[in-house]
């Protein structure tokens, strides 16, 4: 019995030593594991801490490893990489950088703080992969640096800094007093964009089911299939779709809501019914308000500056420094 107990004691000591060695090895290797998983995150975080300025604007991005805090201008570098293709030209990227900064200026003003929280979905993935995209990252950093602090205002207030990928040949006018700077701008060059045209087919049963999921009244199946009335704005985007229930009451679906309901790339479309399918032929990508990124890229490649590009899409606005 004594020998048996002694043997177990020896085995326990060996196990404890192995556990201790394993723990120390884990602690020693942890930085290297993190470096492999997160790329240059540690190095970048050290850089940001060392160069952090007092009383500067900060962004807290919710990412998969927690909350990533970084200065506004650094946040814009990564955000720009996510929202705009890197082959549209530097001046187009600068215009987009100004719009992104203007978006953030509005958030800071609304919250009355120099620190705002944002959703970091997509941001974290790019950050981890950025070690393999140095050229893209550097272009984005240059665009942000060369427009440092600039935002777009109208009558002293940051504008609705709207942008989208490709128009249907023209941007849309906002048509209200809040955004008079958003007028229709011809973008004929957008018709050459690779994703200008798209087609979506929806089975009749699914089409009706989707409509019932959003409409509140009692509707005949046949009326949902055949009798929707489409209203368009002056540039060919659907503004609303109207349906009439069994009691003759009208219900309206906003054009943007309708297009998202059926996964259409924009609200500029024509709909045909072919036997048991609704066929949508769509032009453009995005909501159509503000700056068309593709058209901005064309303007940049033809020699226009970012100031000229912004002036073309946002009438009577001014570039000022955000303080």
Give the proportion of residues in helices.
40-55%
Strand element count? 14
Distance between the termini: 80 Å
Gross geometry: globular
Tell me about the largest β-sheet: 3 strands, mixed
Low-confidence spans: pLDDT under 50, at least 5 residues? 1-18, 20-52
Strand content: 15-25%
Find the structural class using helix and strand composition.
Answer: alpha+beta
User: What order do the SSEs take from the amino end to the carboxyl end, as H and E?
Assistant: HHEEHHEHHEEEEHHEEEHEEEHHE
Overall mean pLDDT score? 84
Computed CA radius of gyration, to the nearest angstrom: 27 Å
Going across the major beta sheet, what is the strand order? 2-1-3
| Total count of helical runs of at least 4 residues | 11
State the gist of this model.
This protein is 44% helix and 21% strand.
Describe this structure in words.
This protein is α+β, with helices and mostly antiparallel strands and 323 residues long. It has helices at residues 2-38, 41-50, 72-83, 90-111, 123-129, 134-145, 204-214, 221-226, 255-261, 293-301, 306-313, and strands at 58-63, 66-71, 115-119, 150-154, 157-158, 163-164, 197-203, 229-232, 238-244, 250-254, 269-274, 277-283, 291-292, 318-321. A three-stranded mixed sheet has the order 2-1-3. Strand 8 (229-232) and strand 9 form a beta hairpin. Helix 3 crosses helix 6. The chain is globular, with a radius of gyration of 27 Å. The termini are far apart. Mean pLDDT is 84; it is low at 1-18 and 20-52.
